[in-house]
User: Which sequence fits this backbone?
C-alpha cells in the first residue's frame, strides 16, 4: 500500500467482508465465548452410526449366483484370503489420516477404532470356522503364498477373497493422487491369486476394495459373488461383513462403469450412438457392468411409467418447462430391501450430437416384501439442455425419450414427451436439480 500498488480501499473491502460475516455469526457480540471449549469427541456414537449407514448403503453387489447371503454360516469352514483382508489402511482413501499422515509417522498409533474385514467377519460369523491366508501383497508381485491360499480355499466350504488397492499419494500407493497406472488390471499378482482360488471349485466371494474401476471380467464371470466396496471408511469392514451375512441387503449402485478391458477406454455411459459398438471400430467399448448397476437379495418390479408436464393438447410440453414422470416400483421378493429407481432422458433428434441416455433423477426407496411405492420425478429443463453450435445453453423442441432403468444398460420401461414451442435458452436462475416424491402404497 505504501508504494501505491494496492489501494487502501481494496484492503478495507476485504476487511469489511470478514467483519460482516463475523458479525452475522455472532462472533462480535458482547460476552461471546467460543463453544466447545472442552474436550471434543470426533467419533461419537452418532457419527459412528452415520459412518456405518454410509458404508452399508454404498456397497455394491456386482454378481451373485446365490451363494450370498451367507447367513450365520454355523459350522461352515470359511477361508478369508487376500492382501486387504487384514488391512486397516485398505478401508481409507489417500487423504485420510491413516494413509496421508501416518506413513510419515510410523510410531504414531492409528487412534481410530476400525476393525479389518477379517476381524469383522469373525465378529459377524461367530459360529463359523474362519481361517486366513494373505496369498500375496497388494502390489509386491509376491507369488510365494498363492499355493497356500488356494490350498486353504480348497479345504473350505466358502472362500472370501479380499482384493484391491493400497491408497497413497504420489506413487506411495496403487490408488490416490499421483498414483496413475498404465493398465486397469489388478495390481501385483492379485489376478493370479484370484484365478488360483477360483480354480479350486470352492464358491468364492470376491470383495473389491479399490479406488478405481478395474477390468476384472474373469472375476465377475467366474466368482460365485462379487462385492464392490471401494474405500468404505471406519465402519466399512463391519458393513462388508453384514452385507455378506445378509444382515444388510445391499443397495449400492455403480457410480462408474466397470470396464471389460483397458483397450475399450476411455468410455462413458454418456456416449453418442457412434460411441458404442458398430462398424466404425473393431473394438467394442461396452463395459462389463454398466453405470448404475447393482444387485439385491430381493427382486423389484416396475409398472405404469407416465411422462408429461404442464400438458398441452396431445400430451405436449413446452420446451423450457419441467417434465414430470412417475412410476410404480414394487418389492416382488421375500426380503425387505431398497431399490434405487433411476430415470434417464434422451434427446432423440438435436442440432448437436447428444448422449443416447443421461441420468436425470434417482430415488432410493425402501420397501417391505410386497410393498409398492409411486415415485415421482420433476425434471427441470436445465437437465435437458446442451450447448448449441452458437455457444448458448438451450433446450430445443422435439421428442424426448424418458426411461426407467436398473442401470444405464438395463431398460425397464420407456415413454416419450414432445417438447413444443421455440428454442428455450437456459438462464442462471433456473432450477438445477430434479425433485423427487415417494408415496408408499398402490396408487388409487
Assistant:
Amino acid at each position: 500500500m505504501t508504494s501505491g500498488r494496492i489501494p487502501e480501499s481494496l484492503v478495507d473491502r476485504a476487511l469489511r467482508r470478514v467483519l460482516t460475516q463475523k458479525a452475522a455469526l455472532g462472533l462480535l457480540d458482547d460476552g461471546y465465548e467460543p463453544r466447545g471449549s472442552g474436550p471434543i469427541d470426533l467419533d461419537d456414537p452418532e457419527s459412528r452410526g452415520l459412518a456405518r449407514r454410509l458404508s452399508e448403503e454404498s456397497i455394491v453387489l456386482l454378481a451373485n449366483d446365490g451363494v450370498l447371503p451367507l447367513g450365520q454360516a454355523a459350522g461352515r469352514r470359511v477361508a478369508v484370503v487376500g492382501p486387504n483382508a487384514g488391512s486397516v489402511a485398505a478401508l481409507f482413501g489417500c487423504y485420510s489420516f491413516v494413509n496421508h499422515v501416518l506413513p510419515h509417522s510410523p510410531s504414531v498409533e492409528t487412534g481410530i477404532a476400525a476393525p479389518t474385514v477379517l476381524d469383522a467377519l469373525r465378529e459377524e460369523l461367530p459360529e463359523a470356522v474362519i481361517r486366513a491366508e494373505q496369498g500375496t501383497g497388494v502390489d509386491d508381485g509376491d507369488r510365494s503364498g498363492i499355493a497356500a491360499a488356494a490350498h486353504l480355499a480348497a479345504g473350505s466350504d466358502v472362500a472370501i477373497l479380499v482384493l484391491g488397492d493400497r491408497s497413497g499419494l504420489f506413487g506411495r500407493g496403487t490408488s490416490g493422487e499421483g498414483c496413475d497406472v498404465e493398465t486397469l488390471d489388478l495390481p501385483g499378482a492379485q489376478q493370479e491369486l484370484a484365478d488360483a482360488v477360483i480354480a479350486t471349485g470352492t464358491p468364492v466371494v470376491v470383495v473389491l476394495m479399490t479406488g478405481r474401476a478395474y477390468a476384472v471380467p474373469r472375476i465377475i464371470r467366474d466368482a460365485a459373488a462379487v462385492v464392490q466396496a471401494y474405500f468404505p471408511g471406519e465402519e466399512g469392514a463391519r458393513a462388508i461383513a453384514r452385507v455378506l451375512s445378509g444382515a444388510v441387503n445391499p443397495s449400492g449402485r455403480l457410480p462408474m462403469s466397470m470396464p471389460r478391458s483397458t483397450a475399450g477406454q476411455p468410455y462413458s455411459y454418456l456416449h453418442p450412438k457412434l460411441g458404442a459398438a458398430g462398424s466404425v471400430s473393431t473394438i467394442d467399448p461396452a463395459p462389463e457392468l454398466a453405470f448404475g448397476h447393482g444387485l439385491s437379495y430381493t427382486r423389484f418390479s416396475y409398472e405404469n411409467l407416465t411422462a408429461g408436464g404442464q400438458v398441452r393438447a396431445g400430451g405436449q410440453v413446452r420446451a423450457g418447462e419441467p417434465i414430470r414422470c412417475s412410476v410404480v416400483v414394487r418389492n416382488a421378493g421375500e426380503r425387505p430391501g431398497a431399490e434405487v429407481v433411476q430415470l434417464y432422458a434422451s434427446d432423440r433428434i438435436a442440432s448437436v450430437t447428444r448422449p443416447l441416455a443421461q441420468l436425470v433423477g434417482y430415488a432410493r426407496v425402501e420397501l417391505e416384501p410386497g410393498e409398492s411405492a409411486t415415485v415421482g420425478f420433476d425434471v427441470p429443463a436445465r437437465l435437458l439442455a446442451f450447448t448449441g453450435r452458437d455457444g448458448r445453453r438451450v433446450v430445443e423442441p422435439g421428442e424426448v425419450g424418458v426411461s426407467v432403468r436398473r442401470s444405464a444398460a438395463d431398460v425397464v420401461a420407456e415413454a416419450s414427451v414432445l417438447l413444443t414451442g421455440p428454442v428455450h435458452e437456459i438462464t442462471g436462475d433456473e432450477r438445477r436439480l430434479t425433485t423427487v416424491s415417494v408415496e408408499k402404497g398402490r396408487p388409487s
